[in-house]
Design goal:
Length: 112
């Protein structure tokens, strides 16, 4: 690979991409995320940068006001439906390509 070319992995869900620094270690920081517990609906508060020091400030997550997907079902039903539709489009496409099999969907345990 030429030194001026770099590998990125684009997210199939949202299209954002991430630099892959090693071919053996894809940038799936999200691997540790538990799908039902992770607060995907995030309420954040703008913080001043002046007195917080380097690496602080910006938009700080307020966990107690943020919601995981189960908590979103009642409060944000349209968003939940949009997420579901996108997930189904991805799963169906990967099934069509043989990457995901029906067996995968039956036997793989979802992390709760
Ligand atoms: Zn994404």
């Amino acid at each position: 690979m030429p030194k001026n070319k770099f590998n990125y992995l684009a997210c199939i869900f949202c299209g954002k991409n991430q630099y892959i620094n090693s071919p053996n270690r894809p940038p799936f920081g999200g691997n540790q995320i538990e799908p039902l517990k992770y607060k995907i609906f995030q309420v954040r508060q703008a913080e001043g940068r002046g007195n917080l020091g380097k690496g602080h400030g910006g938009f700080q997550l307020i966990p107690e006001e943020s919601l995981n997907i189960e908590e979103m079902i009642e409060r944000e039903p349209e968003l939940v439906e949009q997420i579901k539709e996108r997930l189904l489009i991805i799963v169906k496409a990967y099934q069509k390509a043989g990457i995901i099999t029906s067996e995968d969907l039956r036997t793989r345990k979802a992390k709760a």
